[in-house]
Structure prediction request, 337 residues.
Amino acid sequence: MDVKQYLRAKAQAQPKRVVLPESGEERILKAARAALDLGIAYPILVGKPDEIQASAASFAVSLEGIVLADHTDEAVVDGYIARYQQISTTFGPKTLKRMMRSPLNFAVMMEALGEADCTVAGLVHTTTEVILAAQAIIGMKEGIETISSWGVWSIPGWEGADGNLLVHADCAVVVDPSPAELADIAIASSDTTATLLDIEPRVALLSFSTKGSGQHEKADRIIEALAIARQRRPDLKIDGELQLDSAIIPAVAARKMQDVGAVAGRANVLIFPDLNAGNIGVKLVQIFAKADAFGPLLQGFAKPITDLSRGASVDGIVGAMTNVVVLAQGMKVDQPV
Prediction:
């Protein structure tokens, strides 16, 4: 599967409204233009319209067909606050008024109210800022308490159960997940995989141990996470604790395990035990296997929002927009919270 082309085709089949709060950035403006021209999304740029227009002109970017949302328009802000108060009383009107001075918070509020379908930010804002805005205004997906990241490799020469694809999580957010958090990550990653890639997820909770081959509290943590995930979602195909080779190579799984089951040797979703392993693992595969990596995509929120790398290219931003559009299609987020 050519992941990029596959997701692009899915996005083009049902484009969604993507709100972008960092409208003064050249790469954001060019990505918005490209996404609209490709038919992937309907971009919404947040900021003072005259400033956005000036920036676009300076970078020779046409804004034709792109919606501009003025976060300084008092009437619009007051209207959003009144509507939001009907669905959430977590913050009072004065607090919301202060929050809405931020283009990021305004963008997330648009999504919460159904004025946009998804949010992409991160060139200017930190990952923490993006996560906090989404947590405060949108909230978490029902049944999920952990924010995590999802990504997928396209690995040249790899012939697994689903061709050259392997999904990985969490490699960007949770430093040292508890068993309950690992279960959350596994459940969210399974759902994200099914939505984006239309393949049946087979989730492996990775460890240095395969079914008791190593004894340590860190392996016990994986076993506990498996029990939690199975109790919460008995429909999932999930197993652990599994070493990487036991998870993805059938012959190794058969040699190391008495009961291979539906996952071992055929896993297509790899859940790393912590951020050390995840970060190292992603970079090893990218550097030595020359893999193309797609993501990370934030998951766990009630509506789609994702973070960008500070150094994201225009093509990378278009890719992030594509991902959240496809996620929005599967989450059916057209209606207000």
